[in-house]
Amino acid sequence: MHPAVNLVSVAEEDYDDFIERLQAAFTQAARARFPEFLGNIPPQRDIDEALDEPHAEMLSIVYEGNIIGGAVITGGTTHKVLEFFFIDPERQNLNLGQAAWQAIEARYPETKTWELVTAYHEKRNIHFYVNKCGFHIVEYFNKYHEDPDFTQEGAGDYPGSDDGLFKFVKVMA
Q1: In angstroms, rounded to a whole number, what is the distance separating the alpha carbons of residues 21 and 73?
Q2: Residue 18 falls inside a structural domain
Q3: Domain assignment of residue 11, given as a range
Q4: What is the pLDDT of residues 34-43, one digit of tens each?
């Protein structure tokens, strides 16, 4: 049984707090794997780029009245891209991520395909997306097969990015 979570659109006055939480969650994961990494990820320009996409939505994940994470989603009616998805580190391992993903799917019932990209070294994320959410890895971006949406200019902002990125797709039944 999954706990009940709600999704709430982020109000403009709460953008800074949302972005701070997003960067804290992503950065903590990066530093756990790459202790020498001192930056913050994702960089602000990548967040801004996602939010500049048509129909971009910034959603807070709410559980028991508390914001416990968030998502940035782009795309049209039938094809969505999960740009960013996070659960606050202190709330992980409680099945809240899976419940949040189910709430996202329920919010967009007309979506036929979902897409996302995550780093090769993010084994926890890979497990989550494939084994818990039903995504399939459909492409492996690396130095021999570059992601057309990932510029090398910003690659240094992401520790381990030289190991490659997986593209995931989920086709809804």
Answers
A1: 16
A2: yes
A3: 6-171
A4: 888 778 889 8
**Domains held by the chain: number:** 1
Burial class (CB in 10 A: 0-12, 13-18, 19+), 149: exposed
> Which token pair is 64?
């028991």
> Which residue do the tokens 């009245």 mark?
65
- The pTM of the full predicted model, rounded to 2 decimals, is 0.89
Measured distance CA(151)–CA(56) in Å, rounded: 21
Q: Is residue 1 part of a domain?
A: no
- pLDDT tens digits, one per residue of 102-153: 999 999 999 999 999 998 888 999 999 999 999 999 999 888 887 777 654 4
Q: Which residue has the tokens 């049984």?
A: 1
What is the pLDDT at residue 84? 97
Residue 103 lies in a domain: yes
Cα–Cα distance for residue pair 136/143, rounded to 1 Å: 21
Domain at 45, CATH number? 3.40.630.30
Range 21-31 average pLDDT? 88
